Amino acid sequence: MKKTIDIVRSRAIYIFLFIMLIFFSIMNSNFMTANNLLNVAKQVSIFGIASIGMTYVILLGGIDLSTGSLISLVNIIGAYFMVNLNMNPWLAIAISLIISAAIGFANGWIIATIKMPPLIVTFASQTIFGGLAYIICNGRPISRFDDSFLKIGQGYLGKIPIPIIIMVICFAVGAFILTKTYFGRYFYALGGNEEASELSGINVKRIKYLVYSLSGFFAGIAGIVMLSRANTGQPNAGLGYEFDVITCVVLGGVSVNGGSGKILNVLAGVLIIGVLSNGMILMDINSYMQMVIKGIILLLAVGSDCIQQAELLKAKKAA
Asked: Which pLDDT value is given to residue 200?
């Protein structure tokens, strides 16, 4: 019986996703069509990509509130490079991703070296780079991109939208880093017990530099996909995206205390948020109520994690 309960718990995220698919397909006949499901996956691709870097951060027991601002900043600097400086799109993409990774590294350096709380550091970054995005473009959108760049966010490979393909590739790379490299094992180790990890010879500072750099890098990719899809650079493009990204990661079972979680479960969490948003729109639920529902889901996910952590701690003490 206990074994069955453990299996159900480990698969709970997929069971919940399946139940949601059935529920919304009953509520609206248009929900389960191939076009709508592809549209759901396309819609979630942006914060799905960003959730990979956030997964690493939360595995360490940290947080990155700068994700939304980084997406906005990459929107603006990428657009500025291509339109105002007439730069080659691929060079503009490369420089934009280097900048976003460098900002992530700066966050990691402050957190690891100066020992400032991640919440404060990344909130400050959110404010700084959100404001910088407005300064660069004077609060005005930037548009008129090359057709080759627009294919990233608007193109198709066969019948599959390219943003979905990019998201799947990013998740595959993210899963490889986490499961097949020693860096990935270090992420879990630091989240489980940072002091013990340092005593065992792990360079804690370097791992934090790497994790926050990756968070910035994946946020940058999300910003590029968004820029191409929208065909305009907006200084507030990523506003509030950090909330959706954190919700996806926590809903995917990554412990807010760090040290446990699977990236494939995060993909399921991303799809749940996409299905929920799309289903509520089809049911004509207004945007304010959608915010309330998403907030409740985040609260329930964190509460469930806290209860499980308390049970594990109680079991360890009893043993």
From this structure: 87
Residue 138 φ/ψ, nearest 5 degrees:
55, 30
Instruction: Judge whether 265 and 13 are in contact, CB under 8 Å.
Output: yes
- Beta strands at 142-143 and 160-161: parallel, antiparallel or unpaired: unpaired
Nearest by Cα to 44 from 294, 225, 174: 225
Range of 120's domain? 35-241+254-261
Domain count, the chain: 1
Percent of the chain with pLDDT over 70: 92
Q: What is the pLDDT of residue 15?
A: 83
The residue with tokens 């291509």 is 82
Decide: 52 and 285 in contact? Cβ < 8 Å: no
Q: Per-residue pLDDT tens for 130-144?
A: 999 999 999 899 988
Q: pTM for this one?
A: 0.91
Q: State the DSSP H helix or E strand holding residue 156, giving kind and residue range, or none if neither.
A: strand 156-157
Residue 277 is assigned to a structural domain of this protein: no
**Residue 143 included in any domain:** yes
